[in-house]
Amino acid sequence: MPAPEPSGTTVLAPDAQGIARAAGLLAQGGLVAFPTETVYGLGADARNPGAVARVFAAKGRPLVNPLIAHVVDTAAAALLTRLDARAERLAAAFWPGALTLVLPMREGAGIAPQVTAGLPTLAVRVPSHPVAKALLAAFGGPVAAPSANPSGRISPTRAEHVIEALGGRIEAVLDGGPCAVGLESTILALDGPEVRLLRPGGVPVEAIKECLGVRLLTVAGKTVRPQAPGMMASHYAPVARLRMNVTRPETGEVWIGFGPGCDGAALNLSADGDLDEAATALFTAMRVADVLAGPGGSIAVAPVPEQGLGLAINDRLQRAAAPRPETP
Ligand code: TXA
Ligand code: MG
Questions:
Q1: Is the pTM of this model over 0.85?
Q2: pLDDT at 57
Q3: Which atom of ligand 1 is nearest to the CA of 115?
Q4: Based on CB atoms within 10 Å of each CB, which residue in 19, 54, 88, 271 is the most buried?
Q5: Cβ of 145: how many Cβ atoms within 10 Å?
């Protein structure tokens, strides 16, 4: 059996043995972080209230912020939620993949109430990462999983990020290497007549509009409950201050470039200006820049176009740049 890290969290290889062990830990109410194509998730049995409560505690997550239930396929999603024609169409086009659908939950779905924060809807996603798929198949039930980071901080795209922040608070992490998409799923709410975009993410909005045959999506406005991380002003935050759309950084700022023409940048999200490559690189670049900036330092990020995954990149940068809540 693999030795636990000094922190007490076991790092599992993404092989048959590691996956079986991870599924066994989930079945016992344990917390297991696992790779998805977007970011690492912090998994718990979605039907086990005690396990779900531990997810909120490990992350320091407000109880009003509901979790996504990860399932192995669309049929498993349909056991928990009611998919209408729009949902079926989106599922056929984008599952498995980086899309989360918020749907009316079925009665008797058996989901622990804290997963939905008491809402009548459930967010469901079928991930495409082979390790996530194997884990869901081995476990045989829904896995509630927020991103495996302390609430409000940068999401993890490598197992090491998970250990750094949550080591000792969770039983294990399945190490599947770096995440290919690099930022979280796109979240759509389908609980009313309009399709609402709750969070831009790994599936570009253009592709969703094309699939649905619509020109515009409703972007969720302000509500009392934080319906998605997008509703919380500060999120995805490094320790350093961050400014966006910077073509001329100030002295001492760590400049994250995008595309050609960012000579002198400490890092570049994509030297060729490729938005998919930039999305994959974003969270690691923010972490590296944070270390380079040091205590009290500042990060400046070059402009990123508002198209394709650029929408999700700019969304995350806006939240990273937002004023921070007072830390106690
Ligand atoms: O790519 C992802 O979506 C990753 C991986 C691990 O799957 N997960 C992720 O989870 O980003 P999290 O918890 O960091 O963000 C999901 C957000 C929640 O913050 C919540 O606001 C929203 O989804 N959400 C969940 N259930 C909801 C519901 N019933 N209604 C509205 N929003 C919901
Ligand atoms: Mg998150």
A1: yes
A2: 97
A3: 26
A4: 19
A5: 26
Q: Is the CB of 125 under 6 A from ligand 1?
A: yes
| Residue 234 banded pLDDT, cuts 50, 70, 90 | low
Residue 295: other Cβ atoms inside 10 A: 6
Q: What is the rounded distance in angstroms from the CA atom of residue 182 to the CA atom of residue 237?
A: 15
Q: Which residue has the tokens 């476990």?
A: 139
Which one, of 50, 46, 93, lies nearest residue 71 by Cα?
46
Tell me how far apart the alpha carbons of residues 43 and 41 are, in angstroms, rounded to a whole number: 6
The residue whose CA is least distant from atom 6 of ligand 1 is 41
Mean pLDDT of 34-47: 98
- Residue 12's identity, in one-letter code, is L
Distance CA 320, CA 238 (A): 7
CA of 296 to the centre of ligand 2 (A): 24
Dump strand ranges (E) for the chain: 10-12, 32-34, 41-45, 68-70, 99-104, 121-125, 143-144, 172-174, 186-189, 196-199, 218-219, 241-243, 254-257, 267-268, 298-301
Which residue in the block uniquely carries the two structure tokens 């939905």? Answer: 116
Specify whether the CB–CB gap between 270 and 258 falls below 8 A.
yes
User: What percentage of residues in the chain have a pLDDT greater than 90?
Assistant: 86
The first and second tokens of residue 4, run together, are 């636990």
